[in-house]
Write a structure and sequence with these properties.
The protein has 15 helices and no strands. The chain has about 290 residues and is mainly α. The two termini are about 45 Å apart.
Length: about 290
């Protein structure tokens, strides 16, 4: 038998795990071409079309009362739905990661439900529940409270399609961290509330911020569910995505692309903040999780 060691040398590992240059550059080229055609090119076209008639026409698109109402409504819906999702995400993540209880698997499945249900179907469900002829419709009408074709319905639809984002960022993070630090704080006499603020929250703050960014981006860009429950009332229930659709259908392309560019700009800003967090705090977050 040969006396060669069975364990591979570092050179052997390198040859096994490193592809040939032609394979590596082919894969990189395919990825870059795909991103250029399906992501960068549409994004560039949005801004080119928005400024096709100059900066004056671009700015005039935001001076219309309907556009301003759509922007304000979008920000309002995001300002309401994102904190609600943060509250739900923190509560659900804490319960799932720190405790064992019956129905835990069911709760995790329900959190993932918006990923598998069409937003249009979700909006239709709210219409069937809170519409004029819906299950709760007559009672709400008698009380003078309007849900569908009003702000509450838009908020409900937005909360439904966005509530997995915060929870799905925090659950694996909390599970990896375990409960040892919280148990130590409780042993030293800290209350549950103080333990959360001084131990748990600092450990998950960057994951929480990451989930909030994703949740906010989806809340401002949601179209399907909001389209069903809004009623497309100009100046009242149209968010920015709905306003873009109306402008485009009216062949007002410059204004449509101008509002769309604002949405794209918000998405780019969100992506930039996300990338900065990953670059700035990625190592510290990984170390914290590993410990």
């Amino acid at each position: 038998m040969s006396d060669r060691p069975l364990s591979p040398s570092p050179e052997g590992w390198e040859s096994v795990t490193t592809e040939r240059p032609v394979v590596r550059w082919t894969a990189i080229t395919v990825a870059l071409v795909f991103l250029a055609l399906f992501l960068l090119l549409p994004l560039v076209i949005v801004f080119v079309e928005a400024f096709r008639r100059g900066a004056q026409a671009y700015l005039e698109a935001f001076q219309e009362p309907d556009a301003q109402a759509a922007i304000w409504l979008t920000l309002t819906v995001a300002a309401i739905s994102v904190p609600l999702n943060v509250l739900f995400g923190l509560t659900a993540s804490w319960a799932i990661a720190k405790f064992d209880f019956k129905g835990k698997s069911l709760l995790i499945t329900l959190i993932d439900l918006p990923f598998s249900v069409s937003p249009v179907v979700a909006g239709l469900i709210y219409v069937l529940l809170f519409g004029a002829q819906g299950f709760f419709g007559p009672f709400l009408s008698a009380a003078g409270f309007k849900v569908i074709f009003a702000l509450p319905g838009i908020v409900l639809a937005t909360v439904f399609v966005t509530f997995p984002f915060v929870a799905r960022e925090l659950i694996p993070l909390m599970q990896e961290q375990g409960t040892s630090e919280e148990e130590a704080a409780l042993t030293l006499g800290a209350s549950g509330w103080r333990t959360f603020w001084t131990v748990t929250l600092p450990n998950i703050r960057w994951g929480l911020l990451y989930g909030v960014l994703l949740c906010n981006a989806r809340a401002m860009g949601e179209f399907g569910a909001v389209s069903v429950v809004s009623g497309h009332i100009r100046g009242l229930t149209n968010t920015m995505p709905l306003h873009v659709e109306i402008l485009y259908n009216e062949y007002n392309f410059v204004a449509a692309f101008a509002v769309a560019s604002l949405l794209a700009g918000l998405a780019i800003f969100t992506l930039g903040v996300k990338s900065f967090l990953e670059w700035r705090y990625g190592d510290s977050l990984s170390k914290r999780v590993s410990h």
